[in-house]
Amino acid sequence: MVKTLAPTGRLRVGVNTGNFLLVSKEGDGRIRGIVHDLGQELAKRLGTSAEFVLYPQAGAVADAAMAGAWDVAFIGAEPQRAGEIDFTEAYIEIEATYLVPAGSSIRSLEEVDRKGVRIAVAARSAYDLWLSRNIRHATLLRAEGIEGSWQLFLNEKLDVLSGLKPRLLMDQAKLPGSRILEGRFTAVQQAIGAPKGRPGAADYLKAFVAEIKASGLVANLIRRHNVNGVTVAS
In the CATH hierarchy, which fold is given to the domain comprising 2-92+189-232? Predict the structure, then answer.
């Protein structure tokens, strides 16, 4: 299996460094967090070492799938990406919802998708892909990365900021009077993917994900890294 999953001899792991809940980048360029530990665990089981290939956002990871830049990637599983990537079941899920500024008349998720409502979103994030499929009346305004969408929301005085709930809780604390709408519009399914065309790779990764959930490894990593707002996917 190592020849299939790691044809160069090392397991090249594609990482979205924009997902601050699952990975953090140190000053020396190295990473830590849940994704780092799972990548190391996968490489160990294959009898090889892990080489982390870093990207600033999920869309860039997906773009590199067919270029042979990575062997496996930790990325949100979305239908738009399934044409080039074979995904496992999710190992972690993260709620996505909306934040509205002080004085907003929007009180519920259902009230967001209305004509004239402007929503800030991190371009090509998993929840952007969901919103692109489902928003019919409101306008999506995109920025590079999560921090970019926050700045766009502030600078343009937009009506709604979409995002992962743990990050929105941080943003709410910085914006007096702002509110996070109750509920979620989706839950981002964090999975492991392999480029299509590698026989056996998908089945191996699916079995790996099933085992790390059942054994409690994912739950233990969530606790070890003190990550709030994520849950082991059912």
Answer: D-Maltodextrin-Binding Protein; domain 2 (3.40.190)
Residue 232: partners with Cβ closer than 8 Å, 6 or more residues away: 91, 92, 213, 218, 219, 222
| CB proximity list for 132: less than 8 A, separation 6 or greater | 140
Q: Is the dihedral of CA 55, 57, 58, 62 positive or negative?
A: negative
For 94-186, CATH number out of 2.40.50.840, 3.40.50.720, 1.10.1740.10, 3.40.190.10 equals: 3.40.190.10
**What is the reported pTM?**
0.84
Closest among 153, 165, 121 to 140, alpha carbons compared: 121
**What DSSP state is assigned to residue 181?**
P
The amino acid occupying position 156 is: E
What is the mean pLDDT, run by run of 10 residues, along the chain of 234 residues? 91 95 88 98 97 94 91 92 93 97 98 98 94 98 96 98 95 97 95 91 96 98 94 94
pLDDT value at residue 218: 98
What are the helix (H) ranges across 86-200?
126-134, 145-155, 165-174
Length of the chain measured in residues? 234
DSSP code of 94? E
Q: What is the rounded distance in angstroms from the CA atom of residue 206 to the CA atom of residue 86?
A: 10
Q: How far apart are CA 179 and CA 154, in angstroms?
A: 14
117 CB-side CA count, 13 A: 24
Only one residue has tokens 């009506």, namely 159
The position carrying tokens 């019919």 is 136
Instruction: Give the integer Cα–Cα distance in Å for 169 and 115.
Output: 26
